Amino acid sequence: MRADIGFIGLGVMGRPMALNLARADATRAGTGLVVWNRTAAKAEPLRAAGAAVAASPADVCRRAGIVFLMLADGPAIDSVLGRGTPAFAANVAGRVIVHMGTTSPGYSRGLEADLRAAGGRYVEAPVSGSRGPAEAGSLVAMLAGEPDAVDAVRPLIGPMCHESFDCGPVPNALLMKLSVNLFLITMVTGLAEAFHFARGHGLDEHRLRDVLDAGPMASTVSRAKSRMLVDRDFAVQASIANVLDNNRLVAEAARDAGIASPLLDACHALYGETLALGHGEADMAAVVHAIESRTGAERAVTRRRSPPPRTTPGPR
Predict the structure, then answer these.
(1) pLDDT tens for residues 192-223?
(2) What is the pLDDT of residues 27-41, one digit of tens each?
(3) Pick from 25, 107, 102: nearest CA to 66
(4) What are the distances in angstroms from CA 103 to CA 70, 216, 275?
């Protein structure tokens, strides 16, 4: 039986996105969802929601006319599509492949060219948001590609994304996503530093959170990350490792275009330090660990440089 929609990649973001698709498909006659994930157990919630679970990525492509990919990087995409092998054309010909993850714009441009040469169509559809918005179906999608392919995909992303924006030709959607990520990374890093500053001065962090939540800078992201920083609970929404990789992609795109990115470069160093401290799987708000580590190092240097306290000689 041929399904209309395929979904490959059921990780932190992909699984709730696919679940929202499955629930929507349950209410639509004549459609279906077929999914695959490298770790098979992660597909079981989708099976319970009514989706078909494929035996392989090729099986998804065989059964679906439109295939969504929510994968970590270019090598993962190439692997599931069989890019560079004779199986590639069979997997993509006559289908629309929708890239929803974050890769370099150059990679995406090359993938589009290969898909078109093999008889397939291609849409970039990276999303803004983390696990919470993915679960709520409130992600924001950025779309790029040939207009007819984008038109075919746009109605299907409604269960996953509460808004979508056309960005023109490939790779403009990924460039837009990198612009969004630059703001996200620098904002969350600044928020972590603000809480570290307040803690260092002995201020009530709950009160700081309340002040920020009530003020003009408050956002869904700032409220969520502020709670993490107050509670010291860094359950992952977007991991340090993932954010570091995204930071690298933005920095590379900036360098390729000769664009300065001084704030981003400072963040890149901090996220790299947080990863080295062993917090790679924690939420990005855990970047505060690197800031704390730097404070500890600076205070240690200050203590070494300070002269010993003067003593008043006693009577002879």
Answers:
(1) 999 999 999 999 999 999 999 999 999 999 99
(2) 554 568 999 999 999
(3) 25
(4) 11, 33, 20
